[in-house]
Amino acid sequence: MPKIRYVAVDASERVIDASTSDSVMSTAVKNGVSGILAECGGSSTCGTCHVYVEEQFLSAAGPFGELEEDILEMAVTDRRDNSRLSCQIRVQDELDGLTVFLPAVQP
What we know:
Blueprint: E1 3-7, E2 13-17, H1 24-30, E3 50-53, H2 66-75, E4 83-85, E5 98-101
Parallel strand pairs: 1-5
Antiparallel strand pairs: 1-2, 3-4, 3-5
Protein backbone atom coordinates (compact mmCIF):
# COMPACT_ATOMS: atom_id res chain seq x y z
CA MET A 1 0.00 0.00 0.00
CA PRO A 2 1.60 3.31 -1.09
CA LYS A 3 2.35 5.90 1.57
CA ILE A 4 1.61 9.56 0.85
CA ARG A 5 3.17 12.31 2.96
CA TYR A 6 1.29 15.60 3.31
CA VAL A 7 3.35 18.54 4.58
CA ALA A 8 1.59 21.67 5.87
CA VAL A 9 2.99 25.19 5.74
CA ASP A 10 4.00 24.92 9.41
CA ALA A 11 6.08 21.82 8.46
CA SER A 12 3.77 19.43 10.29
CA GLU A 13 3.39 16.14 8.45
CA ARG A 14 0.87 13.34 8.03
CA VAL A 15 1.85 10.06 6.41
CA ILE A 16 -1.10 8.02 5.20
CA ASP A 17 -1.42 4.56 3.72
CA ALA A 18 -3.31 5.17 0.49
CA SER A 19 -5.42 2.78 -1.53
CA THR A 20 -4.35 2.41 -5.13
CA SER A 21 -6.76 4.01 -7.58
CA ASP A 22 -7.92 6.59 -4.99
CA SER A 23 -6.78 10.13 -5.65
CA VAL A 24 -4.29 11.99 -3.50
CA MET A 25 -7.17 14.36 -2.67
CA SER A 26 -9.66 11.68 -1.63
CA THR A 27 -7.00 10.04 0.53
CA ALA A 28 -6.47 13.36 2.31
CA VAL A 29 -10.19 14.01 2.76
CA LYS A 30 -10.88 10.49 4.08
CA ASN A 31 -8.12 10.93 6.62
CA GLY A 32 -8.88 14.48 7.74
CA VAL A 33 -5.81 16.19 6.33
CA SER A 34 -6.18 19.92 6.95
CA GLY A 35 -5.46 22.23 4.05
CA ILE A 36 -7.17 20.28 1.27
CA LEU A 37 -10.68 21.68 1.01
CA ALA A 38 -11.89 19.71 -2.03
CA GLU A 39 -14.98 21.86 -2.48
CA CYS A 40 -15.91 20.37 -5.88
CA GLY A 41 -15.42 16.81 -4.68
CA GLY A 42 -12.74 15.99 -7.22
CA SER A 43 -14.24 17.19 -10.48
CA SER A 44 -11.27 19.47 -11.22
CA THR A 45 -13.36 22.64 -11.22
CA CYS A 46 -12.41 24.60 -8.08
CA GLY A 47 -8.67 24.34 -7.37
CA THR A 48 -9.15 23.89 -3.61
CA CYS A 49 -7.06 20.72 -3.59
CA HIS A 50 -3.95 22.42 -4.96
CA VAL A 51 -0.64 20.89 -3.83
CA TYR A 52 3.04 21.10 -4.72
CA VAL A 53 4.37 17.72 -5.78
CA GLU A 54 7.88 16.77 -4.74
CA GLU A 55 10.03 17.09 -7.86
CA GLN A 56 11.13 13.45 -8.03
CA PHE A 57 7.48 12.35 -8.33
CA LEU A 58 6.31 14.76 -11.02
CA SER A 59 6.51 12.29 -13.89
CA ALA A 60 4.99 9.45 -11.85
CA ALA A 61 2.05 11.72 -10.96
CA GLY A 62 1.02 11.65 -14.60
CA PRO A 63 0.37 14.36 -17.16
CA PHE A 64 -1.87 17.39 -16.74
CA GLY A 65 -5.33 17.24 -18.20
CA GLU A 66 -6.48 20.31 -20.13
CA LEU A 67 -9.06 21.24 -17.49
CA GLU A 68 -6.52 20.86 -14.69
CA GLU A 69 -4.12 23.20 -16.49
CA ASP A 70 -6.90 25.80 -16.90
CA ILE A 71 -7.88 25.64 -13.22
CA LEU A 72 -4.26 25.94 -12.11
CA GLU A 73 -3.81 29.00 -14.35
CA MET A 74 -6.98 30.78 -13.21
CA ALA A 75 -7.79 29.71 -9.68
CA VAL A 76 -4.60 28.89 -7.83
CA THR A 77 -2.58 31.31 -5.78
CA ASP A 78 1.20 30.95 -5.95
CA ARG A 79 1.27 28.65 -8.99
CA ARG A 80 4.60 26.84 -9.36
CA ASP A 81 6.11 24.40 -11.85
CA ASN A 82 5.25 21.53 -9.50
CA SER A 83 1.65 22.66 -8.83
CA ARG A 84 -1.03 20.00 -9.31
CA LEU A 85 -4.62 19.44 -8.34
CA SER A 86 -4.48 16.50 -5.96
CA CYS A 87 -7.84 15.25 -7.26
CA GLN A 88 -6.15 14.51 -10.58
CA ILE A 89 -3.33 12.38 -9.17
CA ARG A 90 -4.32 8.72 -8.92
CA VAL A 91 -2.48 6.73 -6.27
CA GLN A 92 -0.40 3.93 -7.76
CA ASP A 93 2.44 1.81 -6.45
CA GLU A 94 4.94 4.06 -8.25
CA LEU A 95 3.86 6.92 -5.98
CA ASP A 96 4.88 5.14 -2.76
CA GLY A 97 6.65 7.78 -0.70
CA LEU A 98 5.08 10.70 -2.58
CA THR A 99 5.38 13.97 -0.70
CA VAL A 100 2.97 16.80 -1.40
CA PHE A 101 3.31 20.23 0.14
CA LEU A 102 0.17 22.20 0.96
CA PRO A 103 -0.04 25.87 0.00
CA ALA A 104 -0.59 28.58 2.59
CA VAL A 105 -4.09 29.22 1.22
CA GLN A 106 -6.44 27.51 -1.17
CA PRO A 107 -8.49 29.58 -3.62
